[in-house]
Amino acid sequence: MRRTLITTSLLLGLTLSGAASAGPDHGRDGREHGPGRGMPLMRELRELDLSDEQRAQIKQLAQATHQQSQTQRDALAELHHRFTLATPGSSEFRALTTQLADAESTQARQRVTAMAELRTQIDALLTPAQRTQLATELAKMPPPDEREHRRR
Question: In terms of pTM, does the model score above 0.85?
Fold first, then answer.
């Protein structure tokens, strides 16, 4: 009896987990993961009539920004891992708590600064008409609270 119950429970669990993972994989904004994701500015830039040269330059700028931030993300992930493994209450745990809080704060500041720099560099590549069109496209974006509801 007990063996049957355990077997049935395992089969049911496997069936349900398979069904859950078989559904579409959606990103934070409700779109599927894969190419074409990125910060809202990048999606709005697709609506502009960019020249091939502008597209190539923007792609190069975005890739450079991504590569720079990847190193920071990797270091932060390592710090998170060490923090997770540390024993609460130990001196190492307290030290890692401070390090992690400082690193998170620094990374957030660097991320915002890098995004602002990227936007400035992209803006310099656009014509006045494209800047106007981009501003119009960005104005169409729903406020953050409405975007949050769409993600769920």
Answer: no
